[in-house]
Amino acid sequence: MGTTQLESVPEPKYWHLKTVLTEALDSEFSVGEILPNERDLAARFGVARATLRQALEQLELEGRLQRRRGVGTTVAPPRVGVAVGTEQHTWPGAAGDAWQPVDSVQAPPPAAVAAALETGADEPVHTVRRSRMSHGQQVATELLYVPAASMPGLTAIDAPSGAARARAVLRELQHLPLEGEDRAVELGSARADDAKELDRLPGSPVLVVTTRFFVQGRTAALSVATYRADTCRLTFGESAGVEIHHDPEKRAS
C-alpha cells in the first residue's frame, strides 16, 4: 500500500480522514479483517494519532468498524436490514426466518405488554426468546409474547424449557390464520441484559422494533426485537421479514 498524505481541507481533518478511510475499507479490506495498529495507520495517512482515533470512533458509530475485545479493530459486516412498511405478513418461525430460538417460559409479561395483549396483569403468557446472528456475531435479540388463549391447541409441551420448547410454540403459531401485523420502530438505550447479549455497554443506542400480530381483529402475539444500532438500517418495500444485504454497494455509511 502506498502512503496517502492529506491535503489542507476546510472541514475538520478527522472528518476528511474518515472519508479516506471509508474508501480504503471498501477497496482494500474484507469483512472481519483486522486493521493495522494506530501507529501504522497514523503514519500511512500522515496524521496525529488523536486525529486517527476521532476518525475511527466516527466509523465505529456509523457501523463500519467494530472494536472487539482481545482482537482489535475489525471491518464490520454489512448492516442488517429491518424491513418496515411491508405488505407481506408471516408468523415468526416461518420458513426462511433467520432468527434462532433460544428459550421459552411461561410467565407474566411486563405491564405494557399485558395491556397490548389484553391479558390480566398476572396472567402468564408464552415468552419466546430468540437471537439474530450476522457473520457469527449476535446483532439482535427478541422477546415474543404469546397468550395461552392464542394457542388453545397447545395443551402440553414435552420440553419444559430451552430451544425445543421455543420451537414448539413457534410451530403452533403457524396454524393460526394471521390477518395482518403492524410494526413500530424507535431509538432506545440497551438495558443491562440486552447489552450483555449484544456485546454492548448498557445505555448503548439500539433500535427497538415492536410488532403486533393480529388474528380475528385481536393481538394474538407481540414481538419486541432489539437491534444494535450500529449494525442495522431500516428498509422500505414489499419484501417481508428481515434481510441481510451482503452487497457492499448497499452498505450504510
UniProtKB/TrEMBL annotation:
Keywords for this protein? DNA-binding, Transcription, Transcription regulation
Show where the HTH gntR-type domain sits: 11-78
UniProt name for this protein = GntR family transcriptional regulator
CDD domains cross-referenced by the UniProt entry:
WHTH_GntR
- Tell me, which GO biological process terms does this entry list? negative regulation of DNA-templated transcription
The answer on whether this UniProt entry bears the keyword Transcription reads: yes
* InterPro entries attached to this UniProt entry: Bact_HTH_transcr_reg, Chorismate_lyase_/UTRA_dom_sf, Tscrpt_reg_HTH_GntR, UTRA, WH-like_DNA-bd_sf, WH_DNA-bd_sf
Q: Which SMART domains match?
A: HTH_GNTR, UTRA
